[in-house]
Specification:
Blueprint lengths: L2 H7 L6 H9 L11 H9 L6 H24 L1
Length: 75
């Protein structure tokens, strides 16, 4: 389990450190939990590639679609 997923499962929020560690280790699942501000901050500080900004947007859209599907299924 990634650092970010571990934090989320414990009821905690994703941190800059957990998101950066996960992304740099190739675990892009952290993009589901990271905020736009966190991604921007990590890019601006050079801790992750600027390519992650567009990937973050893709993951957030995917999450919105999954949430809408779940809501429709269980409504």
């Amino acid at each position: 389990m990634s650092k970010t997923e571990q934090r989320i499962s414990e009821g905690k929020k994703a941190t800059l450190e957990s998101v950066a560690t996960d992304l740099n280790n190739g675990d892009w699942g952290a993009l589901y939990y990271a905020t736009e501000e966190q991604v921007t901050s990590l890019i601006d500080s050079g801790r992750i590639s600027e390519d992650f900004y567009s990937r973050h947007q893709d993951y957030q859209e995917e999450m919105r679609v999954m949430m809408n599907q779940a809501m429709a299924e269980f409504a």
